[in-house]
Amino acid sequence: MYAWIIPKDMSKPYLSPIFARAIHSGDWPENEKVWHEFCIALDNSKSNLIEIDTYSRDGVIHVVTIDSDTSGWTPKNAYFGSMDFLNKYDPEKICEEISSQDLEECIKIDKKYGYQEIIKIKAQKDIDDLMSSALSFHDAHIESIEAKNDEIHVIFNSYWNRKIELWFEEKPKYENRLEDPEYY
Fold it and tell me: Which of 31, 47, 93, 164 has its Cα between 20 and 30 A from that of 118?
């Protein structure tokens, strides 16, 4: 997994692999679990692991997943999991207990990632990553649609602290149902 990390102090976002994710200890009702989810990522200096809450109750998302691949992960359930080499650690204690060798491996993994700001959607994984980064377009609203030649450009309003633009190419077709109140 790879994500944009928005620090708790809302300073400049940065990219980091996600090495583990979990729910803070506690007996949370199912609808409350999301507010207690956290991830383990590198800090901005790329020298230590940090624990960062995925969401905050004031609507700020601190972890925006842009690569949802967990093929090298050991999942424990829907909310818990880690990269295979880190599954010996308790996610809530990993930042304090990680060995220098495992931390060095985390730093090496970070250096291997190649971020692309513009991604062509060609395969199911690309769709999965888009849906993950856009939170499945939950609460998204179209700001504008512009059709030119063989392209359609769609801009979604800034929601959940992100703005998404999509370009559809090669003679795309769409139906604008905005005039029909059933589809508002």
Answer: 47
Pairing of strands 63-67, 73-75: unpaired
Q: Find the helix or strand (DSSP H, E) in which 95 lies.
A: helix 94-97
Q: How far apart are the C-alpha atoms of 184 and 182, rounded to whole Å?
A: 6
In the chain, the largest separation of any two C-alpha atoms, in whole Å, equals 60
**Cα 84 to Cα 169: distance, rounded to the nearest angstrom:** 39
3-state secondary structure 98-140: CCHHHHHHHHHHHHHCCCCCCCCCCCHHHHHHHHHHCHHHCCC
Residue 14 has pLDDT above 80, yes or no: yes
What residues form DSSP beta bridges with 146? 153
User: Are 48 and 104 spatial neighbours (Cβ–Cβ below 8 Å)?
Assistant: no
Rounded to the nearest angstrom, the gap between the alpha carbon of residue 15 and the centroid of all alpha carbons in its chain is 10
Q: What is the pLDDT of residues 16-52, one digit of tens each?
A: 999 999 888 888 777 777 778 889 999 999 999 999 9
